[in-house]
Amino acid sequence: MYRILIVEDDPAIAEALASHLLTWDYEVKIAEDFQHITEEFIHYEPQLVLLDISLPAYDGYYWCTKIREISGVPLIFVSSADDRMSQVMAMNLGGDDFVEKPYDIQVLLAKIRALLRRAYSLSKQGNLLEHGGVILNAGEASILFHGEKTPLTRNELRILQTLMENAGKFVSRDRLMLQLWESDSFVDDNTLTVNMTRLRKKMGEIGLEDFIETKKGVGYKV
């Protein structure tokens, strides 16, 4: 049974969403203290977060950043902000998907199921991949390099796992997009660019600036 944390300012929306999730046998907690979302996250240990952007005190972008500092747990933004910039920013900061309000509850549930399936089917594999001194642990959604462990978001994990499984060979953008989102999540070419940029930055911070090679019109390889 998966645990889901709902971070939503509107009590009516939060309660209705929680009620639907409970009927699908998810465990659900509605965040109560909007000053200390990180503490609620740590205490509850959810396996997926539903996060609104407009929140008291600090917005959803802020809390996404804080969660990403400690975890790669799947995270879906659920927001009435329907402009493209909001969506891109949400993905850039570590969101795995973006659902606009008002939403169809069946569509949201389908996205939740798909993301949980993709995320935790990787965990069940528990496999390790190594290339160039970098160890990718799919079960923990992390990489280890020179003794330093770095957490990955689920999208970053998907990208890096696909590249390391095909080490030495270029992987096309189309193939990476298929591996990441199939047909049931927010996706376009720019979204892949955003996730790849974020992953490159994270790799660069641990001394792996050139780990991922790009060939225009061909794809990426490690």
Domain tally: 2
CATH topology of the largest domain: Rossmann fold
Overall outline:
globular
CATH architecture group name of the largest domain: 3-Layer(aba) Sandwich
Rg computed from alpha carbons, rounded to a whole number of angstroms: 17 Å
Give a structural overview.
- With 222 residues, the protein is an alpha/beta fold.
- The chain has 8 helices and 11 strands.
- It folds into 2 domains: 3-121, Response regulator (Rossmann fold, 3-Layer(aba) Sandwich), CATH 3.40.50.2300; 126-221, Winged helix-like DNA-binding domain superfamily/Winged helix DNA-binding domain (Arc Repressor Mutant, subunit A), CATH 1.10.10.
- Strand 10 and strand 11 form a beta hairpin.
- The N and C termini lie far apart (36 Å).
Describe this protein with a few key phrases.
2 domains, Arc Repressor Mutant, subunit A, alpha/beta, single chain, 222 residues, Rossmann fold
